[in-house]
Amino acid sequence: MTSSKKTSPPFALLIAFTLSGVAALGHQFLWIRLTAIGLGSETIALMGIVTTFFGGMGFGSLMAPRIIARHGEASAIRWFAAMEFVAALFTLAAPWFLPKASLTLSVALLPILGQTGSAFLSAMLLLSIPCAAVGTTLPLLAAAARFQTGGRNPALLPILYAVNTAGAVIGTLGFVHFILPKAMLDGGAAIAAALSFIAGVLALKHASTENTDNWSRGVWRVPSSRAMKQARRSLIAAMALAGFAGILLEVAATRVLGQVLKGTVYTYANVLAIYLVGIAAGGWLAAQFRHRARNGITRRVNAWLLLALASASVLSGWMMLVVPSITGDLAFEQRRSFLAQGILEFSAAAVVFFIPTVLMGISTALLLQRAEHFHLVGQAYAANTIGGAVAPAVATALLSSSLSFADYRFVVAIVPVAYVLAASLLLRWKRPLHGRLRLAGAPVLVAIALVLPFAVPELGLVQPREGWKIVSYHEGLHGTVMVSEDQRVPVEARATTRLLQIDRHYFMGGGIGFADGRIGALPVLISPMEPKSALLLGLATGATAGGLVRTAGDQLQNVDAAELVPEVVRFLPQFDASTGGLSNNSRVHVHVADARRFVAATPGKYDLIVGDLFHPHRDGVAFLFTREHFQAVGGHLNQGGVYAQWLPLFQLDPEGLAMVIRSFLAAFPEKENWKVAAWLSGTSGNQQALMLAAMAPGTTGEWRPPSDADTQRARTAPTIYREQGKDPAHLFPNGAKEVAALHWMDRAELVRFAGEGPQNSDRHPRILFEAPRAHAKYNVDLEWMSLAAIIPFHSPNAAPTTTEAIWRDALALSLEGETLRIRAMHGDAHQLRDALEKYIQAFEITAKADIDFPPVVDTLQDAINQSPAVAELALPRMARASGSAQPQLWKAWLDYLKAKGDRAAFEKVAMEAQATLRTTPRD
User: Fold this and answer.
1) Which of 59, 93, 688, 822 lies 20 to 30 Å from 385 when distance is taken between CA atoms?
2) Can you tell me whether residue 551 is helix, strand or coil?
3) How many whole angstroms separate alpha carbon 879 and alpha carbon 890?
4) Any idea which of 59-63, 366-370, 559-563 has the lowest mean pLDDT?
5) Are residues 772 and 617 in contact, defined by beta-carbon separation less than 8 angstroms?
6) Is 34 or 47 the better-scoring residue by pLDDT?
7) pLDDT at residue 327, as a whole number
8) What integer pLDDT is reported at residue 339 of this predicted model?
């Protein structure tokens, strides 16, 4: 090489490689997201995709040296540009073919290879080539830039590594927080492709200005001495171990952080960004060592860095315990802005990741620099990424095993052991002590491997509520799943109070979830046919399935239930007391599967399909609310069958609710004779949910108005409740008139409420990005906001004198009162009087019709007992509305006036009461 070469990499190449890093994270996010639509949202499927991504990159890195050896260094920039163009073209087409291709492949392979095998092989077949294209970019550009500098810049590779990783940080935050929420997946794919294309064009433009006459082939000569070969093998092995340890730490720590953080699409982007920031900072620091980076020093420095990483990874295990105190009770914080939540997630990730990732960045950059000395950049980078590809597979195997541990210490402890092994490979012993020291080091490493699991603390951050005791606990691949029961109730009643908890955020079942049985019962009651087969998407504690099975009765022959989390299925028997022994019901068949993939894979058709209450702000759940998913579910209905999808109003803002309804209406168009309507119902904790129901064509039937005989089946309680003397009529205590009143909106009202606007679809999953923002911004206010939005659109009463019609009007008024009361609780105090007025109006219209309407009676009674002002306003109107039917109200009014000392008013009301009741009110 000539001495006239520059010693710093050309600016154009630095910009090209930065853009390449930005685009690479855009590609990665889009490929993972689009492939997961078909492969499923299980952790196993996601691990398969991540493994393929790193494995493909490793294969590409191995190919780069062969390309250069065959075509010469003159071709390096052109091949870099070509690989960027390949990645760009794949990403550009991905939104249109990747979801369908992944679904088709996974369904075809599932019977042959099972869940894990089909996920890994499908991802490999679909993503290997584009991932390999991305993997070639670093070795190719390193070769080109090395030629530009004449090989005299020892900081070259650290600089390239740092700018590429910095670009990845920009790509992570930019795509997830800004580009994709606005442009969606197909627009984001176009932007990622454009960035790759620009990076390639910049590189080609630079190549065209260079004199390449002196660029030659065969510059990647391999040293042939035995010592050099040993050094090369040790370096490659160390890089593989370092890559394995780094990704394993990321996988395990991210899973542990998920116990505390929100688990949204933004959460994982924020955690990944901090991970990459540390590596980029480490790469930049490594570039500052350029004047001291000679072969021997670099080898020893790297060995000590890897030993420091071993210590830092143990420290990370301990720092994970500090996360809850940093974030506060993030899961239950009621008023925290989206920005504040993001800052807390950054902080939590920084505490866990920053020190080890900075050391990772320094170590990896210096190892690559040493690899350049041996002309092994491609092989070293390949070893690093292939080691990273092995890590998710190892984590999957360990965390899905039957080992009885309640933490991640055994996974995290593998990380420092791997770093110690990598360090030992780089330490060169002087003979004749070489063999002895190596021999003595083996038992030391074994001792370290045995001790380190106990140096890492127990990482289970999920604890039961105060006064509750753990019944069952498992911490595995899908997170922490715990069953607890209330110790404050009698022993014989504890089985019915059991609570299912997933991580720190989600609670279901038992004492707070038994009312969820109406989620399964209501679809049966309104269905025009007596269902003989049913499919449940989502199982949890089995409350929904139990309500469905009890209400459908003996004619129900088969129930399939798809549940994503295997630990939830394992704990189903813990809730037999409140589900009527669902786990032993021979008609119920539980499948551990992603709901979307199960729908695609099953050939069966059903009379009834029920989509349970899903949490739309959780990462990946938005794809259960897309038009394509609704259409796929509808394709599995028999003629006249019903698909009921529940929407949690307490987790959707009005715009998100309208968007899902638009998608549902589009999936079941009126012109194809689909009938669509909506029902409103309270769930556990009296939180409100909206049930969208679609009736398949092929029948002249209408939505069935249930009779009291129909509702009696839903009102049957499991044996243990009857033994405890509890009212078995808890689901629909007021029978058919209550069920009829829950009918809220027909298609016309739904169309009027939803209006014109965007839908939630696979390529435009707006709920994925908007639901977490709405949840962070409004939190507990979401329910009253959504209720206030839909209440004016409920179906008008065709016959206002019927019991059902009066019930519906009273329910609307009481819900309006509830929304106003909740607003008042959060600072809008003047709404309290308006809320009270709504409750009183609901009482008046039901009392005058001699209809018992429990939803408002208890609320008004509590308000009267707490506030004299409420008694002053409510009691006169309630007593007069009830007439002679409720003498206790007249007595309560008189007692209030007596206690107040208003004798004149007391005597006047006493005369009015005597005339109304024909007697004096008595106890």
Assistant:
1) 93
2) helix
3) 5
4) 366-370
5) yes
6) 34
7) 64
8) 83
Give the integer Cα–Cα distance in Å for 482 and 283: 41
pLDDT of 738 above 90: no
Token representation of residue 60: 């590409």
Express each pLDDT in 436-486 by its tens digit. 445 455 566 556 656 666 666 666 667 787 888 888 887 766 677 888 888
Name the H helices within 590-626. Answer: 595-601
Is residue 45's pLDDT more than 90? no
- CA 445, CA 902: separation in Å to the nearest integer? 89
Cα–Cα distance, 906 to 910 (Å, whole number): 6
Q: How far is CA 147 from CA 15, 72, 153, in A?
A: 17, 11, 10
H or E segment to which residue 14 belongs:
helix 11-39
Among 729, 651, 731, 726, smallest CA distance to 687 is for 651
Highest mean pLDDT among 422-426, 534-538, 878-882 belongs to 534-538
Residue environment code for 23-49, b if the CB has 16+ CB neighbours within 10 A, otherwise e:
bbbbbbbbbbbbbbbbbbbbbbbbbbb
Please tell me what DSSP assigns to residue 744. E
E-strand spans in 660-806? 675-682, 688-695, 743-746
457: which DSSP letter? P
Task: Report which of 364, 380, 366 is spatially closest to residue 220, judged by C-alpha positions.
Answer: 380
Residue 184 token pair: 């969606």
DSSP code of residue 534: E
Res 97: pLDDT: 93
Closest CA to 521 of 691, 723, 699: 691
- H or E element at residue 915: helix 903-917
| Amino acid (one-letter) located at 260 | V
Question: What's the rounded Cα separation, in Å, for the pair 698 and 673?
Answer: 8
Place of tokens 């009273």: 810
Measured distance CA(471)–CA(478) in Å, rounded: 19
DSSP state of 178: I
High-pLDDT (> 90) share of the chain, %: 30
Yes or no: say if 277 and 383 are a contact pair by the CB < 8 Å rule. no
Q: Quick one: average pLDDT of 194-210?
A: 82
Cα distances from 907 to residues 273, 893, 913, in angstroms, run 75, 12, 10
Q: How far apart are CA 817 and CA 832, in angstroms?
A: 9
Token pair listed for 98: 């990747």
What are the backbone dihedrals phi and psi of residue 508, each rounded to the nearest 5 degrees, phi first? -150, 155
Which residue shows structure tokens 């997170």? 479
pLDDT in tens, 571-597: 899 888 778 788 899 999 999 888 998
Q: Which helix (H) or strand (E) holds 327?
A: helix 323-327
Query: Residue 395: pLDDT above 70?
Result: yes
Whether the Cβ atoms of residue 625 and residue 612 lie closer than 8 Å to each other: no
Q: Are 272 and 279 in contact (CB under 8 A)?
A: no
In 136-179, which residue ranges form alpha helices assigned H by DSSP? 137-148, 156-174
Contacts of 367 (CB under 8 A, 6+ apart): 235, 238, 239, 242, 302, 380, 384
Q: Cα separation of 200 and 171, whole Å?
A: 17
